[in-house]
Specification:
Elements lengths: L7 E5 L4 H12 L3 E6 L2 H12 L6 E6 L5 H14 L5 E4 L17 H23 L4 E5 L22 H25 L5 E5 L10 E2 L2 E2 L2 H10 L3 H4 L1 H8 L8 E4 L9 E3 L9 H15 L7
Parallel strand pairs: 1-2, 1-4, 2-3, 4-5, 5-6, 6-9
Antiparallel strand pairs: 7-8, 9-10
């Protein structure tokens, strides 16, 4: 893996799990890391953890609440005031199977945070991505996208809500967005790349019981059968840095069922191949967020 000295990387949800592991690797390679996190106290603790082993690392913690579009705009403006380039945008943060709840803007929480928040963030940071040669956007999807569908008639969950079904929908949306973004980069002759990845099945803090952590005995079982977070982060790191990638690829573990292993090209489920759905999702996302992408 090449050095990242002089490169700037935003990682959403960088205070734990895959985001934290990616931050450790990027910091070790010399990148400037912006930890974009909802809870800045946890972000500061994660930063201190990295600095304890790499004192010269450049790490900044900034508040980003993907469930609040006003805060997403505030984050983007603050970042653009401080930085004049953006090499890597890692759309990593996510919520998984919460009880039915809504974002500050009235969206179902998983679709609103996992997809719409990142969609808006990427659009607002597009001016910097466009002018940074070789910039990349990496969006985290999931094995859960397989067989999912975008239910445009019930995006807010008011006509019925099943936590896992809505999680799967949000992860399909992440994948469709990544693919459509790369297509539009290429149509407009931009050097930026957009890629999607998934961690297999990783033992991160997404696995909670309501608001409580999983019991310790279950955690130990999970670590026996699932990828540890440092392995789960490898597809993200590969998508962000592998020079042979052309944009539009989907990266996941190479083991059985793509659940564990080292990063390799994966094939999205057929549900991610519908161009009409992809274009409709883009239009709906622009309308819901009020963020339009200027590729010119």
């Amino acid at each position: 893996m090449e050095q990242l000295t002089g490169k700037t990387a935003i990682i959403t949800g960088a205070n734990s799990g895959i985001g934290l592991e990616a931050a450790k690797v990027f910091a070790d390679r010399g990148a400037k890391i912006i930890m974009a996190v909802r809870d800045t106290a946890k972000g500061e603790a994660a930063r201190d953890l990295i600095l304890s082993t790499k004192q010269e690392a450049f790490i900044t913690v900034m508040k980003l609440d993907l469930a609040d579009l006003a805060n997403v705009r505030k984050f983007a403006e603050s970042f653009k005031d401080k930085y004049d380039s953006l090499d890597l945008l890692i759309n990593n943060a996510g919520v998984m199977t919460p009880p039915y709840s809504k974002t500050k803007d009235g969206f179902e929480l998983q679709f609103g945070s996992n997809h719409l928040g990142h969609f808006a963030l990427t659009g607002l940071l597009l001016p910097l991505l466009k002018k940074t040669p070789g910039s990349r956007v990496v969006s985290l999807s999931s094995l859960a996208h397989k067989g999912a569908a975008i239910n445009f008639d019930n995006l807010d969950g008011t006509k019925g809500y099943k936590p896992m079904k809505f999680y799967s929908q949000s992860k399909l949306a992440n994948l469709l967005f990544a693919q459509e973004l790369d297509k539009r980069f290429k149509e407009n002759g931009l050097q930026s790349l957009s890629l999607a990845c998934h961690p297999g099945i990783s033992a991160t803090n997404l696995f909670k019981f309501g608001k409580r952590d999983a019991p310790e005995f279950l955690k130990s079982l999970m670590h026996n059968f699932l990828q540890p977070p440092d392995m789960g982060a490898l597809p993200t790191i590969y998508a962000a840095t592998e020079p042979q990638l052309k944009g539009g690829e989907y990266i996941g573990p190479d083991g059985k069922g793509q659940r564990k292993g080292y990063p390799a090209l994966d094939t999205p489920h057929a549900s991610a191949g519908d161009k009409a759905v992809s274009q409709k999702l883009w239009a709906v996302s622009e309308k819901l967020t009020g963020v339009t992408f200027d590729f010119s």
